[in-house]
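dumping this here before i forget
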Amino acid sequence: MARHQVQEAAVHAFDAQLATGAPAPVPAVVALDGIAEFIGVSHGTAGPWPHGPARIGLHATEGESWTLDLTKSGSHLVTDDHRDTDATLHGSASELLLTLHGRLPLTPAQTAGDRSALKNFLNWPDLS
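structure:
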């Protein structure tokens, strides 16, 4: 529970800073953990993937990467496979976390591959 509260507080702090016009990035250690938590909780418990199968890669400039298989059985973290991804999202851990939470827009500079697969990924599950 405390872990999730840290992630939630970090995203809401960004929201508050954005409202004043001077948002600071989420600290890398918090953002990296937030990405892992988002993948495990928000996506890992979301149920069936409603689109065609896709493999998405997330790559933080801090050196961490995650690969997800999205199938009718849901979202699954892949750790033992070197197949190519359909789409990737690159950026700092803060940028990735805030993009996952819908706080930053998806920009072409951050992406490679099938942009529609990334948009589907970022819009699922609907957490609003």
